[in-house]
Amino acid sequence: QIGLSWRPQEQESLTLQLSRGYRGGGVSYAPTLGTTTPYDSESSWDLELNGQAQPLESLTLSASIFHSWMEDQQVTLNSPRGLPSIDTYITNAGKSRRYGSELGARWQACAPLAFSASLGWVHSEFDTLDIDGIDRSGEAFPNAPEWTSSVGASYHHASGIFSKMLFSWADSTYTDPASPQMTALESRRLLSAQFGYAWEHARVYIFGSNLL
Q: Mean pLDDT of residues grouped by 10 in the chain (212 residues)?
């Protein structure tokens, strides 16, 4: 990993980072079928540029762009003769890539109350992928929605009462590269919330996820 960082002012920064990624190979096992499938290691180059600025004392903005080049990406597939999500195996895509960006903001409206928001976009693509003799090149990665976003709010009172709420949204995607249409997923909306009380060394709270 190689990084270069520049801070023109205390609350501003710009960082460029180049990383080399590696994931070892192995053998995948389908339990109900009793079969094993070997797969090769995966490697990648990841380039990312991050920036952060604070135009106002109460407002922080962030942005990032990235690009990844992947060799022999490990891809998880359902075995056609087994149980979905249980009898799976891993194969290697020849080449693949992904690139995108993310924007974020945090606003401290007043001492106890803060708001946050984010917006992300990613393009992913298998440049070379063959599954059981079928060319799947050009497909997006599974479980990789093109667009994601979120908005949130948090409240921390001096008395110890606090609450948090986060609403997130993800674009449609799919789960199995061998059958993208059969495993398509609709866009998803998720609301989570937390409410509680904190004191010097402890806190108690209730939390709910997927409240919609």
A: 90 95 95 93 98 95 98 92 88 95 97 97 96 91 97 95 98 93 94 95 95 91
**pTM of the predicted model as reported, rounded to 2 decimal places:** 0.87
The partner residues of 88 in beta bridges, in order of sequence, read 78
